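Note to self: keep these together.
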Amino acid sequence: MHTCNFMDYFGWGGGWTGMLIAVAVLALAIYFVCRLFSRKPCNFDRRDTLNILKHRLASGEITQEEYEKLKNVI
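Structure:
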């Protein structure tokens, strides 16, 4: 007959070793679930975007007209 043994922590054996492994696996699972759901949306700062535009204008990648147009969009 099969009995339920609570000392057999998730099949990793009884005693301290099995309990420590079970707690570690459970803690890692909780950690990864919390990290998955607590990610903050990536917010770009307007100043950073303007600095990138200024750099592109200074390096000649875009013209003054393109700079003004893009700056107004931001």
